[in-house]
Design goal:
184 residues, Muramoyl-pentapeptide Carboxypeptidase, domain 2, six-stranded mixed sheet, two-stranded antiparallel ribbon
Length: 184
């Protein structure tokens, strides 16, 4: 696969640029956040096909708040916003390589944070866990964007990020059944 033009359509509702220029950190810094690996573009395609296009068709327009994150963007995020992020475990890096030629995150795939205006994030997340081939989902509250990824593991891991104490969210792993039956 050749590297596509960033304004090329991926799926029915998105362009590649949508995933590269959506975060507040990128909007503030406008660092080069362009994926270098063809596999990253394939991961974007998979995320759109498996999750974002179906969500858009079910609930309405998706608003991306954090998508692909290059090493340059991670540096900005760590410096200015979230010093505790760990790129080696973060699928926002997708299939990109570090300076030694190794995957930044060995989970591959791609993660995105998003919400649908006027719709409870819990309703959208619940639909995703019941209807899609996701890898990981990190849920914060019904009124905030949430994180979802696709990847080769399709682990269907659901983590509720409970509150914010001691400078960090408190992760609680949940089964699909417990998550769906929750009252967020």
């Amino acid at each position: 696969m050749d590297i596509p033009n960033l304004d090329e359509q991926c799926g029915k509702h998105f362009t590649y640029r949508d995933f590269i220029e959506c975060s507040d950190s990128w909007k503030r810094t406008q660092v080069d956040n362009t994926p270098k690996q063809p596999e990253t573009y394939l991961a974007i395609d998979l995320l759109v096909k498996e999750i974002l296009d179906p969500v858009t068709e079910t609930f309405g327009q998706v608003i991306l708040t954090y998508g692909f994150s290059s090493a340059a963007l991670v540096k900005e995020v760590k410096t200015n916003s979230y010093p505790n992020i760990t790129p080696s475990g973060d699928q926002h890096a997708s299939c990109e390589l570090n300076r030694n030629g190794n995957l930044i995150c060995d989970r591959k795939g791609l993660a995105v944070d998003f919400y649908v205006a006027g719709v409870s994030s819990f309703e959208v997340a619940k639909w995703i866990v019941q209807n899609t081939k996701f890898d990981r989902l990190y849920f914060y509250s019904a009124h905030r964007p949430f994180h979802v990824s696709v990847g080769p593991d399709e682990s269907k891991s659901i983590v509720f990020m409970d509150g914010y104490r001691g400078g960090r969210h408190q992760p609680k792993v949940m089964t699909l059944e417990r998550f769906v039956q929750s009252n967020f």
